[in-house]
Design brief:
about 290 residues; alpha/beta; Rossmann fold; seven-stranded parallel sheet; 11 helices; 7 strands; about 15% strand; binds NADP nicotinamide-adenine-dinucleotide phosphate
Length: about 290
């Protein structure tokens, strides 16, 4: 019997008032995991600000949060730009009040061989993930210090940060940098009442996932389930619950930690590994498609 499925969609993990009075800013909160995170924070009583570049994405996030009775606001922002981040925090605070929880979820990723990665592609991915996470975190810290309260930052990373990510060297390096940053900031900012943690999701397919990523990583739920020790894939709400718990007072002694939510998939090693296929061959189908 593999790992059991999670509680049903709509189940609140914490009491509905556990995060009352808190305001969370979720970058990339309009799609995929970010939207699930926004919804679960709202279910625990948190007001949620959704920050990203695309108005339609943000609108989808707002609809989802409002559907569970949450208070929310949105702001346009490219997280590569520190001035836009400041303006987005101002906009969310004007609508909802001081931000106390930051979820650095925005990211970009696509399969590409290291030798074919252009300087632009390398910089774009690293800038969104590393610069964006750092600039947003600095902004949250400055505001919490100014208000005199406490705050929590949760960085969404990936298990490729531990293993390397052949075929995705840009995104893997960026996520590894964020785990390192999580540890530095946790120590620097604990005296200021700001906790900094990370969550490394395993495979959480969703309808908005890029086609090339989905094609690489999933072969449909029945096949995918047999390829993980857990016997199943992740459900997005499971990341939402993990974020909600880490943001809550129940985790107030936890900082500098990276929580893996992947059913042990990244630890898997068979005694005898399958024959090695060069990465260029593994990616050939999706790379051809991208041309
Ligand atoms: P996704 O749907 O592609 O979401 C990425 C989000 O980031 C989008 O909402 C996008 O919004 C936002 N974004 C991208 N560039 C931005 C920028 N420059 N400024 C502001 N926002 C930006 O991806 P996902 O699958 O939900 O992944 C969410 C997080 O989980 C990511 O950090 C990812 O690395 C991590 N993760 C996911 C999985 C998985 O299986 N899904 C596995 C491991 C890790 P706009 O387009 O509106 O800007």
């Amino acid at each position: 019997m593999p790992l059991p499925p999670p509680p049903n969609d709509g189940t609140a993990m914490l009491a509905g008032d556990a995060l009352d009075g808190q305001v969370a800013l979720v970058t990339g909160g309009g799609t995929g995991l970010g939207r699930a995170i926004a919804v679960e924070l709202a279910r625990a009583g948190c007001a949620v600000g959704i920050v990203s570049r695309d108005a339609q994405h943000r609108a989808a996030g707002i609809t989802a949060v409002e559907a569970v009775g949450g208070r929310c606001a949105e702001a346009e922002c490219d997280v590569r730009d520190a001035d836009q981040i400041k303006a987005a925090f101002d906009q969310i605070e004007a609508a909802l009040g001081p931000v106390t929880i930051l979820v650095n979820n925005a990211a970009a990723n696509f399969p590409v061989l290291a030798q074919d990665t252009s300087p632009n592609a390398w910089r774009a991915v690293n800038s969104i993930v590393v610069d964006g996470t750092f600039f947003c975190s600095k902004e949250l810290h400055a505001r919490v210090v100014r208000e005199g309260g406490s705050g929590s930052i949760i960085n969404i990373v990936a298990t490729q940060a531990f293993t390397g990510g052949p075929g995705m060297a840009h995104a893997s390096a960026a996520k590894a940098a964020v785990i390192n940053m999580t540890k530095s900031l946790a120590v620097e900012w604990a005296p200021d009442g700001v906790r900094v943690n990370a969550i490394a999701p395993g495979l959480f397919p969703h309808e908005e996932m890029r086609e090339d990523l989905a094609a690489l990583r999933t072969q449909g739920p029945n096949v995918d389930a047999t390829r993980s020790p857990a016997g199943r894939l992740g459900e997005r709400r499971e990341i939402g619950w993990a974020v909600t718990w880490l943001a809550s007072p129940f985790a107030s002694f936890i900082t500098g930690h990276t929580l893996v939510v992947d059913g042990a998939n990244w630890l898997r090693r068979d005694f005898v590994m399958p024959p090695f296929t060069p990465v260029a061959e593994q990616l050939s189908a999706v790379l051809r498609k991208a041309e």
